[in-house]
Every structure is written in C-alpha cells, then in structure tokens.
Amino acid sequence: MEMENVIIGKKLKTLRTDAGLTLQEAAEAIGGSIAHLSLVENGRSGISLSKLQRLLTRYGKTMADLVEDSDLSDSRVVTLSTAKHLGFFGEGVEALLLAKDVQNKAMEPSYFRVEPGATVGPMQHVAGEECLFVLDGRMKITLEDPKSGETSEYNLESGATIYYDSTLIHTVTNTGNKPLTFYGCCTPAAF
C-alpha cells in the first residue's frame, strides 16, 4: 500500500501544480493542514476518501483522473484483479474503479469493501444520480438535503439497492460485524 501512496501523492502534487494552487490553498480547500498535505504528496501518509474527493473537486478533476493510465486495451472488460484502486486510505475503505477511460463515459462504476464500523463519506456531487447495490454485509446510508437539512437513514442488507440524487450529502457506514462489499454507480462520472 505504501507504493500506492507514493504514486497517488505524486499525481496529486502534479494535479495541484497544474491547477496553479499552493499547498496552503489546497489544504484550506479540504480543511486540512499544509504539513499533512505535504506528507500525502510525498507518499508518506494516506488521505481519507472524503478529503481526497474534496481536493480533486477543487482541482477540477475526478478520481478517475487520479488513477487512469493510458492502457485502454480491451477497455470494455475490467475484473476486480485488474481494477484501479480509488483508495485504501487508512480508514478501512478499499474502492476500485470498475471501468477504464471513465472520463469519456456517462457512468462511473465502483466496487467498495468497507471494514466493520468504517465509513465512506460524507460525499456530495454537484449533479447526477447514484445507485448502490449491497453484495454482502450490512450498511446504513444517511442522505442529507443540503438546502433543508432534512436527513433520512436507510439500513440495507445483502441484495438491497438504493437509488438517490448525488447532490444529497451521503454517508455509508458498515453496521455489521464483517466486511461490507457493495457496488456503486454514479452519473455523470464524478468520483
């Protein structure tokens, strides 16, 4: 995992400098410190999925921009063993991108493995829709309307699906005692 931190850190630094931002401006965008962001960019620390998403949004990029490479051979098929890691950043969450070249696609499919008690989020996209399908385990998903503050919670188990507007602030928590695995797909590709 340390090598992934180094690779992701280098890419994040390149994205930040391409966006014309200083470490301080980028750290402020995620509510973090300059020291921590520097450690992340140098591959010596991980970053939470929610902070990474905010950082990429500030850079005008998506998670796919961070992990995509130029190998588009047989771009129609991706297996879990060949999927690109979206992150496993010390918070008990592993996320895999289940498509290649998503910048040029309408949907962004992902696979998540979440340890007991771990959380994905809170996340929010500017536009779009999302669908989650629980493969194994139990989750609580919290959806919050950022305008009204109204919150809804849903408890889902294996085989359940939830569909929602991506502009809602959404948080997934593994409420079970074993790893939670689920499939998610959002449109447009934004994660």
From TrEMBL:
Does this UniProt record's set of keywords contain Cell inner membrane? no
Sorted keywords for this record are: DNA-binding
Say if the entry is tagged with keyword Transferase: no
Under InterPro entries, the record lists: Cro/C1-type_HTH, Cupin_2, Lambda_DNA-bd_dom_sf, RmlC-like_jellyroll, RmlC_Cupin_sf, TransReg_Diox_bact_type
Cellular component aspect of the GO annotation? cytosol
What PROSITE patterns is this protein classified in? HTH_CROC1 (PS50943)
Source domain of life is Bacteria
**Occurrences of domain HTH cro/C1-type (ranges):** 12-66
GO MF annotation list: DNA binding; DNA-binding transcription factor activity
Q: Where is the signal peptide?
A: none
Question: What SUPFAM superfamilies does this protein map onto?
Answer: lambda repressor-like DNA-binding domains, RmlC-like cupins
Pfam families, A to Z: Cupin_2 (PF07883), HTH_31 (PF13560)
Name this polypeptide is given: Helix-turn-helix domain-containing protein
Which organism does this sequence originate in?
Papillibacter cinnamivorans DSM 12816
